[in-house]
Write a sequence for this structure.
């Protein structure tokens, strides 16, 4: 990949506008008024296989809802994968939507389903990538031509934010391009636990900026249930590496790869990922996840971005993690002293879940953030909790055990460089964020803030199946304080 690209458009992040009261990234979708005439009739696509192909070692499932300015980085990723293409060992199957400028000047937003074939010429693909970034606007049809032999079908104006559309793709891909092992990558805007009520131009996980639809956290579990088990689930999406998210999909993947902070649009080194898959059919899921997560931080360093982090969650450890978390919550509730907790809340490493750093400051983002690093939060509470009584000692014992489990068992690898958007050194974090009460609640109270939400936090399995939901109820004053023991 050419270093000259660093001077182009890699300042975008996987965040999208919320309401004007929150913030936005100013990335406008292609609107109906931008379309200048009808798109020409689509070329006849390559025929889909009539029967499943012979199983390979790996199939990469790549699903994207990108229709806004992230389209450039999406195409960059697709063309990087085209340099390797599908091989005798690895299938690469893609569904992606983006605005295309046709030869007659018309623009259409087309959804493509592709099965990458033979590799393309690297120099030619690099030239197309660089020209695309310099040109701006919709993706020129000549760029799409680099993938013309790989198109299975194409359709205009689909709702890519519907979880059922994603599930239709993954089920089709696993049926006709089977493999012993699978990597599932999602590419598009994300926002962790904040399922904003569905409105045009507002965001959620895998948001379609044209339809306003997106995949909620409950729908993410439905998507994975339809998809079936994969070896690695990789999120090129902002703010998604949260306990609440991982808990939704823990039964359907070995590892979850993602970031707790806004992600730079450089994404992961998907070309390097394909090289690894072609070299080994037996690379452990953890090591594969580590390579992918580390490549994002390496990309951020290469393009001299101010900071980035990513981690690999071992889903097999989540059940034991829940027990450690419950033990610490029990100890805190038994102590029934908020002094240390209240000191930790304004100091914990937080992430810009509302995207306000795109138009404001890190300090503002930190004050209203509802996403904080769990390890750092526990560590700060222990720093301010004496050890004079058995109850205080229990908080320390269970807190240290929880921190050790996160660092040594739950998180296989954590990579970071520089500072977070909200102003914290990434070395303070450990790769798992959760909902932590903010310094200042948008709307002034949880009840007011909840009016923004489509998904009630306390209905999430993480809130119900661990005691974190009960702990937050205590912190928000939604339940009577326990009796001090």
């Amino acid at each position: 990949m050419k270093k000259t690209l660093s001077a182009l458009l890699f300042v975008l992040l996987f965040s999208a506008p919320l309401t004007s009261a929150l913030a936005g990234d100013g990335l406008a979708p292609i609107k109906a008024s931008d379309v200048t005439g009808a798109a020409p009739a689509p070329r006849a696509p390559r025929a889909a296989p009539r029967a499943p192909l012979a199983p390979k070692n790996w199939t990469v499932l790549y699903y994207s809802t990108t229709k806004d300015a992230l389209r450039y980085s999406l195409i960059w990723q697709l063309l990087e994968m085209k340099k390797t293409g599908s091989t005798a060992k690895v299938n690469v199957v893609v569904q992606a939507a983006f605005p295309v400028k046709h030869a007659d000047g018309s623009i259409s937003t087309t959804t493509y389903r592709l099965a990458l074939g033979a590799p393309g010429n690297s120099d030619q693909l690099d030239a197309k990538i660089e020209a695309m970034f310099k040109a701006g606007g919709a993706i020129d049809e000549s760029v799409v031509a680099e993938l013309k032999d790989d198109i299975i079908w194409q359709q205009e104006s689909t709702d890519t934010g519907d979880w059922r559309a994603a599930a239709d793709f993954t089920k089709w891909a696993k049926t006709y391009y089977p493999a012993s092992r699978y990597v599932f990558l999602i590419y598009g805007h994300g926002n962790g636990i904040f399922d904003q009520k569905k409105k045009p131009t507002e965001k959620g996980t895998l948001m379609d900026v044209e339809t306003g639809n997106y995949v909620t956290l409950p729908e993410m579990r439905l998507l994975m249930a339809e998809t079936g088990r994969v070896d690695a689930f990789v999120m090129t999406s902002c703010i998604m590496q949260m306990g609440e998210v991982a808990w939704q999909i823990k039964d359907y993947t070995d590892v979850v790869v993602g970031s707790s902070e806004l992600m730079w649009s450089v994404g992961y080194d998907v070309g390097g990922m394909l090289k690894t898959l072609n070299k080994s059919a037996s690379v452990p899921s953890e090591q594969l996840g580590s390579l992918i997560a580390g490549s994002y931080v390496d990309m951020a360093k290469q393009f001299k971005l101010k900071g980035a982090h990513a981690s690999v969650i071992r889903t097999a450890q989540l059940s034991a993690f829940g027990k450690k978390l419950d033990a610490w919550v029990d100890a805190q509730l038994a102590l029934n002293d908020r002094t240390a907790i209240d000191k930790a809340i304004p100091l914990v490493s937080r992430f810009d879940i509302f995207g306000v750093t795109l138009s404001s400051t890190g300090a503002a983002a930190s004050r209203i953030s509802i996403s904080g690093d769990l390890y750092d939060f526990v560590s700060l509470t222990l720093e301010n909790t004496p050890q004079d009584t058995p109850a205080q000692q229990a908080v320390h014992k269970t807190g240290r055990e929880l921190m050790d489990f996160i660092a040594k068992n739950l998180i296989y690898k954590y990579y970071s460089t520089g500072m977070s958007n909200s102003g914290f050194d990434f070395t303070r974090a450990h790769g798992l964020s959760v909902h932590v009460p903010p310094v200042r609640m948008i709307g002034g109270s949880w009840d007011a803030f909840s009016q923004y939400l489509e998904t009630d936090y306390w209905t999430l399995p993480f809130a119900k199946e661990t005691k974190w939901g009960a702990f937050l109820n205590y912190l928000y004053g939604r339940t009577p304080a326990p009796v001090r023991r």
